[in-house]
């Protein structure tokens, strides 16, 4: 029997992830902060729950699962500490925390999982979940997210001045986000930290000019007054440990699946 999974945060990533896991035979619970979305989650086949981390109610039923995936853009450290206590007292024994490569500073070079992180709330939240006794935790640091209704050619307004034009792009498509999480679960890869980012890193100038043209928009305006700062996120560890090949490795020649 496949392990049961609870997904905290059924939004842009959580909803398609949950449907993928359901199709693969996993029992899945999903949370939303909006009662109006309960019917939508039910229709998808999920066992839905309304959970707002600001509201510290009992979450025993939701946490009655083998694996918890935390996929919420929430930065309140105290609320996460309370959630950690609830997890410790629950059935959960494996945990995936969705983080971001924004924890790394711009180094004007490559960053790996061993690189120093910034003292940000997100980095602190990672540490809250990385050392829970009796629970195996894997942290995935996703690069910038795109896919579906998140189109890079729409990331900026017409009047935006795009900084760091000669820096480099770090992005990952929704399809790869989902497949990476599914692969981690299937292969039982725990107690790890992984960067998840497409293989290619075109310049911001090249990439956003191309993507805005795809959307029929006028060319972007870049800030050329300062030297560009950037980082290039390495995905080598993830590809090696998971034996993973990206569905969308090449950002320059990407075409959105239909």
Automatic annotation (TrEMBL):
Residues 5-115 form the 6-phosphogluconate dehydrogenase NADP-binding domain. InterPro entries: 6PGDH_NADP-bd, NAD(P)-bd_dom_sf, NAD(P)-dependent_oxidoreduct. GO terms for molecular function: aldehyde dehydrogenase (NAD+) activity; NADP binding. GO terms for cellular component: cytoplasm. Coiled coil: none annotated. Transmembrane segments: none annotated. This is 6-phosphogluconate dehydrogenase NADP-binding domain-containing protein. It comes from Saccharicrinis fermentans DSM 9555 = JCM 21142.
């Amino acid at each position: 029997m496949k392990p049961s999974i609870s997904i905290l945060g059924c939004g842009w990533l959580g909803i398609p992830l949950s449907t993928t896991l359901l199709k693969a035979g996993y029992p899945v619970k999903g949370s939303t902060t909006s009662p109006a979305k309960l019917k939508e989650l039910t229709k998808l086949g999920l066992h839905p729950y309304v959970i707002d981390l600001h509201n510290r109610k009992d979450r025993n039923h939701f946490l009655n699962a083998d694996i918890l995936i935390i996929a919420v853009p929430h930065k309140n450290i105290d609320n996460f500490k309370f959630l950690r206590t609830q997890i410790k007292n629950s059935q959960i024994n494996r945990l995936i925390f969705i983080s971001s490569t924004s924890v790394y500073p711009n180094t004007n070079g490559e960053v790996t999982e061993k690189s120093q992180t910034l003292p940000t709330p997100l980095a602190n939240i990672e540490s809250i979940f990385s050392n829970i006794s009796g629970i195996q935790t894997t942290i995935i640091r996703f690069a910038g997210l795109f896919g579906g209704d998140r189109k890079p050619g729409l990331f900026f307004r017409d009047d935006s001045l795009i900084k760091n034009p000669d820096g480099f792009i770090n992005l990952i498509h929704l399809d790869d986000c989902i497949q990476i999480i599914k692969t981690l679960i299937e292969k039982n890869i725990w107690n790890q930290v992984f960067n998840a980012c497409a293989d290619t890193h075109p310049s911001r100038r090249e990439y956003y000019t191309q993507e805005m043209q795809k959307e029929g928009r006028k060319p972007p305006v870049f800030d050329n007054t300062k030297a560009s700062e950037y980082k290039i996120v390495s995905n080598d560890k993830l590809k090696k440990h998971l034996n993973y090949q990206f569905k969308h490795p090449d950002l320059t020649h990407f075409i959105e699946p239909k």
